[in-house]
Write a structure and sequence with these properties.
The chain is α/β, with parallel strands linked by helices. It has ten helices and seven strands. The protein has a single domain, classed as Rossmann fold, CATH 3.40.50.150. Helix content is 35%, strand content 21%. The protein has a seven-stranded mixed beta sheet.
Length: 257
């Protein structure tokens, strides 16, 4: 079994929560079209909205092969499963515990799920295997954004598309890197990384403001919880986001036909 030593510690808590039936399958921030009100379930709706924005950017259609790299608990592929038919939906993750939870999902008739332990920087697939690639708020966990881009370009079909969300940091980001990192290629230039890999950056959308309200739900109000290193990292992430030292991006990249 693959070691989970490289998996950020905050996933331990999230995995146990989902096993107990607490919380949803999303493991990313939300997209807010309006200010939060504190209403029940609004963070989950904002998280689903972020998936919706990215999937719309992917221009999905029925019958595609889709790869989700760093698939978490399977929420993004589940959304595709609900919306489309004839889909081959593959999720990869370095953490077998997360994939165990993904396997509880049932594909609609005509769709098929596949879940595989894999390193994002060394994908175990043949060239030109996928029409679409997703990478939702996971790239900063990988050992190298540059190496991931090269692998994504390799396994995309000519004319294929990758959509992603990513977080870039500035300022004192050491606590965040320690808790959530490693954040390779700090201050990464996605257009340049994509070009080196042979991908074209079709869209780069700044969603910093739309994702900022999420921290209302991801950080505690009790100072007593701050001794937890994962909580300290979440608080540092919030401080950077609210202080203008964090940029949240939506990306659409394509492989020339």
């Amino acid at each position: 079994m693959t070691s989970t030593a490289a998996v950020p510690l905050y996933f331990d808590r999230m995995i146990e929560g989902l096993r107990r039936g607490e919380g949803g399958r999303w493991v990313h921030l939300g997209h807010w079209d309006a200010a939060p009100t504190g209403a029940a379930g609004e963070f989950a709706r904002a998280q689903a909205r972020l998936d919706e924005v990215l999937l719309d950017m992917a221009e999905l259609r029925d019958g595609l092969h889709v790869l989700d790299v760093g698939c978490g608990f399977g929420a993004s592929l589940e959304a595709i499963n609900r919306r489309h038919s004839g889909m081959q939906l593959t999720g990869v993750n370095i953490d077998p515990r997360q994939l165990e939870l993904c396997r509880a999902l049932a594909a609609r008739p005509g769709n098929r799920y596949a879940w595989q332990v894999a390193d994002a920087c060394a994908l175990p697939f043949a060239p030109a295997s996928f029409d679409r690639i997703l990478c939702v708020e996971a790239m900063f966990h990988f050992a190298s954004r540059r190496a991931f881009y090269a692998e994504a370009a390799r396994v995309l079909v000519p004319g294929g598309v990758m959509v992603a969300s990513d977080i870039l940091l500035s300022g004192d980001s050491a606590p965040v890197r320690e808790g959530f990192g490693p954040w390779p290629e700090e201050g990464a230039n996605h257009r340049a990384l994509a070009a080196v890999a042979g991908l074209r950056c079709d869209a780069l959308v700044d969603a910093t403001a739309q994702t900022r309200p999420s921290h209302r739900y991801t950080t505690p109000s009790s100072p007593a919880a701050h001794s937890d290193p994962t909580v300290r990292a979440a608080l540092a992430l919030r401080t950077l986001h609210e202080g203008g030292h964090l940029q949240y991006l939506y990306l659409r990249l394509s492989k020339p036909a």
